[in-house]
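User: Hi! Is it possible to get a structure for several chains at once, not just one? Here's what I have:
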Amino acid sequence: MRGNWLGTVTGLLATGALIALLFVPLGTILVRSFTGGSSVPGLETGPLAVLTDPYYLGRIGFTAWQALLSTLLTVVVGLPSAILLARYRFTGRRALTAAFTVPFVMPTVVAGMGFLALVGPNGALGVDLRNTLAIMLAAHVFYNFAVVARLVGGYLESIGPRLEEAAATLGAGAWRALWRVTLPLALPATLAAATLTFIFCFTSFGVILILAPAGQFATLEVEIYRLTARLLQLDAAATLAVTQLVIVGVLSLVYTRLQARLAVGVDQRGSPRRPSLGGTALLGTNMVLIGVLVLAPLLALTYRAFTDPGGGVGLGNFVAALDAPATIGFTSLGLAVRNSLTFALVSGTVAVLLGLVFAYAVARGGWRFLDQLSLLPLATSPITLAFGYLLSYPLLVTTVWGIPLAHALLAFPFVTRTLLPSLRAQPANLAGAAATLGTGPLRTLLRVELPLLAPSLTVATAFAFAISLGEFGATLLMTRPEYATLTTAIFDRLGRPGAANYGTAMALAVVLMALTAAVMLVLQRRVRTEF
Amino acid sequence: MSLQLRDLTKRYGATTAVDGVDLEVGRGRTLALLGPSGCGKSTLLRLIAGLERPDAGTVTFEGADITQVPAQRRAFGVVFQDYALFPHLDVGRNVAFGLVEQGLTRAAIQARVTALLDTVGLTGLERRRVHQLSGGQQQRVALARALAPEPAVLLLDEPLSNLDESLRESLAIEIREVLERLDGYAVYVTHDQAEAFGMADEVAVMRAGTIRQLDGKQALLDAPRDAWVARFLGHENVWEGAKAQRVAEWAGVRQAAGDALLLRVDMVRLTDQEPGSRGVEAIVTRVEQRGLLWRLELAVARWATSIHWSGYARELRPDLDTPATPSVGDTFTLSVPRTAWRTLAADDDAGAETAAQDAELHA
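Assistant: Yes, the chains can be modeled jointly so their relative placement is included. Here is the combined structure:
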């Protein structure tokens, strides 16, 4: 809107925030990868040395390879659900769709602990798959099949069943129509979902660290973490971080292109129908399989947490977690929960404010380039971001603001993505009408636009809160004993041998799962995000 | 040999979309299913196609019961209102879709596609992408695609409704030609009375899930079953209740208490002669000019009501070479022959549609 000073101000604020909180850290990493001496004397530095080192090339190759395998498996698992959900109308459809997203919103640490409880040492299924490619792929599928199911399912649903009906009248039965019509139609959405899944699997961190910590399974993200936190080879870390950034950046561009083509949808009609006998069988089988996939790790986790070291069922692990033996220096459950919640509250607020500023600047101020730029933190992996903070704002990290700020930056793109469609959907003349009645942009925002945004704001806040609760990578890199969160506390205990530590780690994971589930209930009311 | 529907019923939850419909289409004939939105005509068509399963009743085709046969084995051709072309296939492959299912050789398919595109006037557009075509062209492709497998039955669901006025006429002509040449059976669904009359041999008027009247076109116009059907077909001068009684009395038409009365205004002459035993005075209260056609509303004091009349200026003053334009306040004598009157059943289903839909009909 012309003359909207608030639009200008928010645009400037947003740009400033982007520069300070994103570009400066990333720039510092970039500079560091080219200049600066190594902290380990005698070691070859410089980006060329790193990128031609067969070890690092192997890491890059492995990261891509496991991401590719994970993506293929995820698509195979997710497509049937997508097609069945879009095609049929049945009781419990809403609940099923919500159940799909449970794994996606679960913290990586919880997912990791769940799989450990299921197929780790002393796992419920009796087989130890720790440090195998299989467990890594399984966890990735667990996490990401919802992306495929919802993206492709939503797309197919918007197209409607009319084209399959036309195919039927031309002699194509259910399977022929699936092969000749449904799958080709779903291709754009499938490619977009696959690209997104690939990005998530490529930057995988928590899952790897917990399920496959052995050296040969290290992805780029894990490698960067090790180089920064353990080996203090910051230059090599910087080079890898930049490499990952470039790869993910390119993939993100590909994704946005693919996603834009989805919007140019086909406008058909017809509505989903009740399934036939065969359809019901397929639906039932799929629901059971997905249910097992989603529930098994979480149930195993819960069971394990409530199993005392002695073997009986009880609260032993939780009680043990409440104590924090000063000698070993573990974080108690109480402190971890307090920190997690505090950080979530603070970062949630900052994320929502930041996200709102961005959304307003794009929708009302006309700062359209901010729309794409607000996605940058998503392309920047958490480890890279934290690494950038360590390099550019070393003092910040020592304060209590370091971690919430990192969380806020990682979360605000989701807030913007949630608020933008709602802001855009508001009638264009609303602000004009308010102006003729004497209110300026700020008052209009407070009295008119924000109240209308309330539902989206709730969803966005819950989203930001959940992301902060479950954040692991950045938190781990920036952690200090007094700032330990649930995620780092769990990882801590995993790192020390002993059944007791294992048990308390499970207990902490269950608490984290419960907290996230509570936030999820708020989210479930209306999730209208565009990735 | 025919396509028969017996007692066909389809329910969606508490609503009955199709309620015990009986219908028969003869070979080589086109039946129009005419009715307002929501009357169930599209559902009925989908039942015939096999895209929906009926809750009761049977569909019989040339002696065989096909009620439980799914759509892909009936293989009745369907032209949808929203074209339903496959966006990932070009025009040629769209048209060829059903032929691929039939297992024809590539050469045979090629030949057939070319021939069909010629028939619908889209020669040479095989490689065009669907989204590059206009609405009228897309519907032509849909028609060609439906005809390609030489289906025994062709079903058309409001094929012209999505098109602009200007495109409708040419495509309507095309469809009419196709239907005339068709050897099999055809059912044409529409809400437009003129379209139904243009395309079909017989018309079934549908309302709230049931067929109200099934007849040839002239028979429908001459003898509509009730006041609702009369109005839906375009008769404007239909009276019910006390008004009907009063007018019937003047006309000397005997009817029962609840009956409705129809005046065939196309049989009424407007003259400037003295009112006599068959004539009554009328004064123009409203004039509307629609191009060359005049629509008048004339108040008839003797009947205590008004009639609607439309026609060309020449019919008002046939003696004049240059027709005079009518204006408010002009008086005429209506010359009404006996045969212009018809007794009908009253509209017995007044709540069948919402008021909005009724308003749409009478517009």
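Chain B touches chain A through 26 residues (CB under 8 Å). Chain B has a mean pLDDT of 89.

User: Great, thank you!
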